[in-house]
Write a structure and sequence with these properties.
The chain is an alpha/beta fold and about 900 residues long. Helices cover about 35% and strands about 20% of the residues.
């Protein structure tokens, strides 16, 4: 089916009605796929009706502004549709923005109600600042009786949404977009892209950007569906590729900078039907790659003030003549837009002449909320209609296509985000030690514009660059953080007494040149951990500059939001972990960022003396959790765990107890089970285990059933079978070789003798091991602590990845374990080079048992795509066994 819109904009009573028409035609079709699963058109409509009813019940009238502060989910779409259904306007806010900024925006738009699923601490902060604001949690709304559902509010000319952009007055300004603006955009975009009901649109744009309007509404208007994902998915190109393939994505849009990063990092990007780039100038070579990547490729242009997109170009591979320009054209006006290239006096210019771009037509917004002066300055009423003065310098070629040439003012465009220097400047001036400040741009070594902040402090004060950067991080969104801060006794002036921005730009460039030429770099011995050294090398590679201190700030080394994406992608590849992009904003120095990485990798508090059972993510008391023994902590990163139930990690090794001191598998399982039952006192229980953890949860499940408790299911991920040999000899030999190599130096003789005492433990002499357990256990625990907590004693000659402590303690327990059969529901997954668990567990697992196979390696089970596959199987069982 390839349904297309058969009505026209003039037939529509309300933006919501476009969705409702499609919901009437295809109620059971999937509208949205999010991390929780699929939602149909009918499910979205029912939720939107509950939202509408909740607004009416609270006395919210048509035309009111409603704030939405929510994570990305189908609930977010339902709330947005419900607000429109009620004839209200929404303002969508990014929960990752600084709380003070969020509060200021909600206060400015005079919202009386806020739909939110944000953390309680953030909601309390906002409502403390705005006492009259009423927060509503969408999940707590009841389904409204059909007879009590209010009628859809009519009015195509009413306000649809407010979207805050960077402002010239020192505060973000809110653009007012009407329902008519959006409806005309959708019809025009549907014609240009030829989107159909068979498409699936990847939605990753933050709700704080107008690109989300296209991603959210266009698919729902034509009967297509959207895959709703967090923007951090773009940080993991290979995971992105897997998600696109698994979910049948046909359309994707993002900025040229992000496209370039993804195509560079992805091993094999899947072919799309439609690839879209927008937000900044698209290099010609990138445009050619998109043409080869998709059946149709488009370069789109449009300010927020003209409703997302105004101009578009259907890309094709071009060469020679005027088409050999460095950047692809932005194209021609969409069907609902008029475009003019004008001079300083507003006179239309001939083709091939540079001038400012003015836009008119049905996409021109209503202006700025509560700001008549700014509206009058940027919007012009002419005989031909209302026009928006973009401030963009363009040229129209003889073939009618427009080419973007840059800005005519001081505005900065960073990775598709418009930044007004004056807004940052107003925040800088709030610093208690700053007397005067100016914000502008400068070009880095790659000829890319970056944000420059220059300050003159009050007499008697001496704020550092780091002080100012930390101050700004609590008040500005990460996209507006500066790359260079100059603390000067006096700001340079021009001959006529104005601040010399050109002089400041020169100073910034000179500083970067001096830093690049600096011969002083941090020596290997100065790093306090291996992680610090890895981070420093990664930052140098990404930023192309030298590291001169462990306390250097990423952004003051020339980093920005996009380079943070590149850097985090590199770190994730090195350590096999998942990081949030804001982690570098919260930990901006090499020292603090390395410490953050180690915390993510090892979860030190949980693994060292703080108990064996640790929640991963937010527990849900309404849902039975899965207790997973030996789960890889990569799943602790947001968005990785998708099995559909809350997760608790169960550790079998911890300081003072656990594996090193266990007398048997039975007693170790009982010890861990006691801590599980402290979290969940009664069944049914969900248990899972990987490798040796699988053997342990098998015994836990058996003990629970013997005690009369219900086990909903037992999940065994390539478990170690009883009596299985451990591949420890090779690890032992590697460790011995490492010791012998270290021992060649006389200075290391003492360390080597001590280490030899620990390493060459014969695996057959278990009696010797047991006799020395009281001595050995504390030493191995010390080694384990050292591995999980890198510190300044990093030269301690312990091989971090091959230390055979596990084998020493696990082998005798496994060999002496005499298991009894387990009767119950179980899912057993084994792999190509694993433990051979399927055959070993055939006699032990009795009852409803599923056996599945993955053609992969045992050590790859927590890497994509294998991780996603077995989690999908697990999610299906969770749905059957709620």
């Amino acid at each position: 089916m390839t349904t297309k819109m058969t009505v026209s904009p003039t037939d529509i009573d309300n933006l919501y009605c476009l969705f409702a028409r499609q919901a009437d035609e295809t109620p059971e079709k999937v509208a949205v796929v999010d991390s929780e699963g699929e939602s149909t058109y009918q499910a979205l409509r029912v939720q939107s009706e509950s939202v509408h009813a909740a607004l009416v019940a609270r006395g919210v009238s048509e035309g009111s502004v409603v704030a939405i502060l929510m994570e990305r989910s189908a609930d977010l779409l339902a709330v947005t549709l419900g607000v429109l259904r009620a004839g209200c306007a929404f303002v969508s806010l990014d929960p990752n923005d600084p709380p003070a900024r969020l509060t200021g925006m909600i206060s400015r738009c005079k919202a009386a109600v806020m739909f939110t699923d944000a953390p309680l601490s953030l909601v309390q902060f906002v409502t403390a600042e705005i006492p009259d604001l009423v927060p509503i949690v969408p999940a707590e709304l009841r389904v409204t009786d059909a007879d009590a559902v209010p009628q859809v509010a009519r009015g195509i000319d009413g306000l649809a949404y407010l979207l805050f952009t960077s402002g010239t007055t020192g505060e973000p300004k809110a653009v007012m977009v009407s329902q008519s603006n959006v409806v005309h955009l959708l019809f025009s975009a549907e014609r240009l892209l030829n989107i159909t009901s068979s498409d699936r649109y990847l939605a990753v744009s933050t709700v704080a950007f107008d690109a989300s309007i296209i991603e959210f509404f266009l698919p729902l208007m034509v009967g297509a569906s959207l895959l709703l994902r967090d923007g951090n998915l773009l940080l993991s190109p290979n995971k992105l590729c897997y998600d696109i393939r698994e979910n049948g994505v046909t359309i994707m849009q993002t900025s040229p900078s992000v496209w370039a990063m993804i195509l560079k990092k992805a091993d094999d990007f899947p072919r799309l039907r439609i690839a879209i780039t927008h937000g900044e100038a698209a290099p010609r070579d990138l445009a050619d790659k998109l043409v080869n990547l998709a059946d149709y490729a488009f370069n789109m242009y449009g300010p927020t003030e003209t409703t997302v997109w105004a101009i578009g170009c259907h890309l094709a591979v071009e060469s020679g003549g005027s088409t050999a320009a460095a950047f692809a054209p932005i194209g021609q006006p969409m069907t609902h837009v008029r475009a003019f290239v004008v001079d300083d006096f507003g006179r239309v210019l001939d083709a091939e002449t540079e001038g400012e771009l003015w836009l008119g037509g049905d996409g021109v917004s209503m202006g700025y909320w509560d700001d008549a002066a700014q509206t009058e300055a940027k919007f012009q009423q002419l005989d031909t209609g209302r026009m928006y003065k973009t401030g963009d310098l363009v040229r129209q070629s003889n073939d009618g296509r427009l080419h973007f040439l840059g800005r005519i003012d001081d505005q900065i465009q960073l990775s598709g985000v418009r930044v007004e220097p004056l807004e940052i400047e107003a925040v800088v001036r709030d610093h208690p030690e700053v007397d005067r400040a100016v914000v502008t741009w400068f070009e880095d070594a790659k000829q890319k514009r970056q944000i420059l902040v220059a300050v003159a402090p009050y007499v008697g004060t001496s704020p550092t660059e780091d002080d100012i950067l930390e101050f700004l991080a609590t008040r500005l969104p990460r996209r507006m953080m500066p790359s260079c801060i100059l603390v000067l006794s006096e700001l340079p002036l021009t001959a006529n007494g104005k601040i010399s921005k050109a002089g400041l730009r020169l100073s910034a460039v000179q500083r970067q040149s001096r830093a690049a030429a600096s011969v002083r770099t941090v020596s290997a011995k100065e790093y306090r951990s291996h992680t610090e050294r890895e981070v420093a090398e990664c930052w140098q590679h990404v930023l192309g500059t030298s590291v001169t201190s462990r306390d250097q700030q990423f952004f003051l080394m020339g980093g920005d939001s996009l380079s943070a994406v590149y850097m985090i992608s590199e770190i994730e590849l090195i350590y096999g972990i998942e990081l949030q992009v804001n982690s570098v904003f919260e930990n901006p120095t090499i020292r603090t960022f390395a410490r953050h990485i180690d915390t993510v990798r090892f979860n030190a508090n949980a693994l060292n003396g703080q108990g064996m059972v640790v929640p991963i993510g937010q527990p849900d008391p309404k849902v039975t959790p899965l207790f997973f023994c030996n789960v890889d902590l990569c799943v602790a990163r947001k968005g990785v765990w998708t099995a559909g139930v809350p997760l608790y990690a169960v550790m079998y090794w911890s300081m003072g107890e656990g594996l090193a001191r266990a007398a048997s598998i039975e007693k170790l399982a009982a010890l861990m089970l006691a801590q599980i039952r402290a979290v969940q006192s009664k069944g049914p229980y969900r248990l899972g285990g990987y490798s040796f953890g699988g053997l342990l949860v098998f015994e836990m499940a058996r003990q629970l059933r013997s005690a009369g408790e219900e086990v909903a299911y037992l999940f065994l991920l390539d478990p170690t079978p009883p009596g299985a040999p451990l591949a420890g000899a090779s690890l032992r030999q590697q460790a011995v070789d490492r010791v012998e190599k270290i021992a060649r130096g006389p200075a290391n003789a003492g360390w080597a003798a001590w280490l030899r005492m620990l390493v060459p433990v014969p695996y057959g002499t278990t009696k010797w091991l047991r006799d020395k357990t009281k001595i050995m256990a504390p030493l191995y625990e010390l080694v384990d602590w050292r591995v999980r907590n890198p510190n300044k004693f990093k030269w301690l000659p312990i091989p971090l990845h091959i230390w055979p402590a596990y084998a020493h303690f696990a082998r005798p327990l496994i060999a002496s374990y005499k298991p009894e059969p387990y009767h119950g529901r179980a899912l057993l997954v084994d792999c190509a080079d694993g433990h051979g668990g399927t055959s070993a567990y055939n006699a032990l697992l009795q009852g409803d048992v599923e056996r599945l196979h993955l053609d992969t390696e045992h050590t790859m089970l927590f890497r994509e795509p294998d991780l996603g596959r077995w989690m999908s199987w697990l999610a299906q069982r969770n749905q059957k066994n709620p």
